[in-house]
Amino acid sequence: MSTTADAGQDPTHGGTVPGGSGRVVVVGSANVDLVVDVPRHPGGGETILGGDLRRNPGGKGANQAVGAARAGGADTTFVGALGHDDAADLLRASLERGGVRTDLVERVDAPTGTALITVSPDGENAIVVAPGANSHVTVGAAQAERIAAADVVLAQLEVPLDVVRAAAAARRPGALLVLNAAPSRDLPDDLWDTIDVLVVNEHEAADLVGPTEGETDPSSLASLLLLRVPAVVVTLGGRGSLVHERLPGGTLGTDVPAVPVDAVDTTGAGDTFCGVLAAALARGADLPDAARLAAAAGALAVTRPGAQDAVPDAADVVALARRADGLT
Ligand code: ADP
Hints:
Blueprint: E1 2-4, E2 23-27, E3 31-37, E4 54-58, H1 60-71, E5 75-79, E6 81-82, H2 86-97, E7 106-107, E8 113-119, E9 125-130, H3 141-148, E10 152-155, H4 161-170, E11 176-180, H5 189-192, E12 197-201, H6 202-209, H7 218-225, E13 231-235, E14 241-247, E15 250-256, H8 269-282, H9 287-302, H10 314-327
The structure holds adenosine-5'-diphosphate.
């Protein structure tokens, strides 16, 4: 369902990159996820025994890069930083398996980013992230040159805000900055002004709007965020997503349904969604169409365990999106 409302604020959002060639640069984090199943999460000072340790490639930046390349079919470069350790080798191999260009990933004198994750039987995660190398990501001349050739720059908030600023500044005119504002943190005014498309889940949307508004309805949150950016996507897990845009004739809200699947593991659904959204925008899709394709990719991702390992192939994403389109 789509609705038009009153005339929006400037600048409006075209939602498309005219003549976009499908080039995406993802600027962000890469983490090795150390995952243990536990009977329950330990309290302070407590030791408990868990299951066998799993070591998975993760980090929002690296996950989204694999999403854009493998599930979105875009020419994708990852700009990030890894240490000099075997976790770095694991991540590089996963990125390359996913079809991501890694030539601009730097090796720095800090441990590769690590996420310590315990998973309780009800599927709840407790996570501690040691950013390590992710705190040392830089946008140097080579990275800026690649960003300047991109149609879409996709960033998240697991790297220093200055990195996001530098990536935004290196864009060519007409290229889009898609910011997945996760994990939640306050955004300074100058960063708000660089965003073309903001992607958040409903918790992050509420955090960005702030508690003073007391707002929890996703559509109202999207409308409030649209006062600050030209386009917003609020993802709602198995309930789909809301796309709100300022267009020349007014504001447009589009509900994008989730594609029904049997969910096995929701880790990485949001990252796959963001990667495919960026890839579709880079090829010139409008934002609602990009979100429909991203929804198919997110749905396939939840049918498999893991993050980067759960990212589907582009052909399967397109096939499911077509089937879903026929159903609605
Ligand atoms: P995040 O992981 O960032 O919280 P979401 O859980 O909102 O992101 O998922 C992003 C998108 O992935 C959703 O908007 C939806 O299209 C798809 N998705 C997530 N969970 C499911 C599910 N259980 N079934 C079908 N699609 C899903």
